[in-house]
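Quick bug: Nudix hydrolase domain-containing protein output formatted oddly.
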Amino acid sequence: MPPVPSVRAVLLDDDRLVLFRRTVPGKELYWSAPGGHVEPEDASLEHTLHRELLEELGATVSAVTPLTTLRCPREEGVKLQHVYGCRLVSMDLALRCGPEFADPARGVYEVVRVPLDPDEIGALNLVPPELGDYLTGAAARLPDLIAG
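Here's what came back:
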């Protein structure tokens, strides 16, 4: 059975990219974009995006724009990551919910804002690496791609 597809948010807060700085016990420090797996009850990929942003950041967004679909090879098959650009409208971390925040073994999800600079983005250990490659190449164009 192929891996369940996911969505990822290229979330802009003015001129900065909102990411998670992930500290997981026993793993190397890494960064990730908000998002997650498509659930059976999700009406669409965009619905998944809004649900995940609310769960992970207590965030609402505007200017949702499909950017790319990444093909990420994994042992169990190719995982599709549907990448959407969006602009932050509001964020209330007190509204975060989900298993990733209740289980200490899942590590820490520290919200960070990173300049839209290809060198700074390229220096991060971004997971999945295919997203890091995309963001490094598209960093300068993102504000224009994500109208707002």
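Actually, after a second look the formatting is fine. The helical segments are 45-57, 99-102, 118-122, 129-138, 142-145. Closing.
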